[in-house]
Write a structure and sequence with these properties.
This protein is mostly helical. Helices cover about 70% and strands about 0% of the residues. The protein has a single domain (about 1-240), classed as Glycerol uptake facilitator protein, CATH 1.20.1080.
Length: about 240
């Protein structure tokens, strides 16, 4: 179990450091006005997808490669993971995300006002209403986070079933996360992962931290719905993975 928890910590660290780091350092470069070298939404979406691919193939054989409390709870609901082990996984993921955000903050502190600017901008946090990149309200945020996390879980459970092609699972899951970000960055800045949301909100502070509850609750709701639904629809297939 120690090795599995360490793998979840490291995998979540990679996800937050790579995905949030891309959003903070490279999305708008050299500045939001000119952005001649920035990677934009597409680059951030690809970064999050790539972190999952990297984590799945490196840490997945040890822990299953969840890196996300919603995923852990969703696969438990589908009968793929022991409920008694969910608490340890979630703690490891939350800590991994917070350590990654702290490392990003330490790097930003070495720039000329970079840390203050990142915090003023929310530290790549998720939000709705005035904090949504596109000004989408709370209802839109609830729907997009619930639906897309459910989609994510359906793909994860299906791609990792024994009847699937296991060597391709990490790629399918990573590409799905990329697609999810392409859809929802304008709506909420994309969560589908409470560990990622909490890590950013702690450093975003203020209103960002005040809105993080939505990104803890509704990704988990979507994941649980998908897990129970997959098990109900496909029965034994859901439990084989």
């Amino acid at each position: 179990m120690v090795a599995r928890l360490a793998a979840e910590f490291l995998g979540t660290f990679i996800l937050v450091f790579g995905g949030v780091g891309t959003a903070l350092f490279a999305a708008n470069f050299p500045d939001p006005e000119s952005n001649t070298l920035g990677v934009g939404f597409l680059g951030v979406a690809l970064a999050f997808g790539l972190t999952v691919v990297v984590g799945a193939y490196s840490m997945g054989p040890i822990s299953g490669g969840h890196f996300n409390p919603a995923v852990t709870l969703g696969v438990a609901a589908a009968g793929r993971f022991a409920w008694r082990d969910t608490g340890g996984y979630i703690v490891a993921q939350l800590v991994g995300g917070l350590v990654a955000a702290s490392a990003l903050a330490a790097i930003l502190a070495g720039g000329d006002g970079a840390l203050a600017a990142a915090r003023d901008g929310g530290f790549a946090s998720n939000g709705y209403g005035e904090l949504s990149p596109g000004g989408y309200g709370i209802g839109s945020a609830i729907l997009v986070e619930t639906i897309l996390t459910a989609v994510f879980l359906f793909v994860i459970i299906g791609a990792t079933a024994k009847i699937a092609a296991p060597a391709m699972a990490g790629l399918a899951i990573g590409l799905t996360l990329t697609l999810i970000h392409l859809i929802s960055i304008p709506v909420t800045n994309t969560s589908v992962n409470p560990a990622r949301s909490l890590a950013s909100a702690v450093y975003g502070g203020g209103e960002w931290l005040g809105q993080v509850w939505l990104f803890l609750v509704f990704p988990v709701l979507g994941a649980l719905v998908a897990g129970f639904a997959y098990k109900g629809l496909f029965g034994a297939t859901a439990a084989e993975g």
